[in-house]
């Protein structure tokens, strides 16, 4: 994909939210199609974050957490749960979000999301 200002901005937001180690790991694919795929998802998904508008990174993070939980995409939920603090989301807000997920997406989705949150917190050395 051609390097554009929009792609550079999307890359910067992705890196600031997910961290260098995660982005570097995802971007290290030696396959040209894999690199193109990374550029595509960066420009589409992270381009939304980079466009500005009325939503702050914190709000976007909470929305992504809610949507990935609702869709049962726990692997992606885990990525965003682990980076939510960098986006300005507090643990207390994530705890409250779990109630919303259980109420509106179903108890199984809420339970699965809570398991992921507990695992992420355990990995960072918290209860």
TrEMBL record:
Pfam families: CMD. InterPro entries: 4CMD/NDH-1_regulator, AhpD-like, CMD-like. SUPFAM superfamilies: AhpD-like. Residues 36-118 form the Carboxymuconolactone decarboxylase-like domain. GO terms for molecular function: peroxiredoxin activity. PANTHER family: 4-CARBOXYMUCONOLACTONE DECARBOXYLASE FAMILY PROTEIN, CARBOXYMUCONOLACTONE DECARBOXYLASE-LIKE DOMAIN-CONTAINING PROTEIN. This is 4-carboxymuconolactone decarboxylase. The lineage of its organism: Bacteria, Bacillati, Actinomycetota, Actinomycetes, Streptosporangiales.
């Amino acid at each position: 994909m051609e390097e554009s200002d929009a792609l550079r901005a999307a890359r910067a937001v992705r890196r600031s939210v997910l961290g260098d180690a995660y982005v570097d790991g995802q971007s290290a694919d030696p396959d040209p199609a894999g690199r193109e795929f990374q550029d595509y998802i960066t420009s589409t998904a992270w381009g939304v974050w980079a466009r500005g508008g009325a939503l702050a990174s914190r709000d976007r993070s909470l929305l992504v957490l809610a949507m990935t939980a609702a869709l049962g995409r726990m692997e992606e939920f885990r990525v965003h749960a682990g980076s939510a603090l960098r986006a300005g989301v507090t643990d207390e807000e994530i705890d409250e979000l779990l109630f919303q997920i259980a109420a509106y997406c179903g108890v199984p989705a809420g339970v699965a999301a809570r398991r992921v949150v507990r695992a992420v917190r355990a990995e960072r050395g918290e209860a």
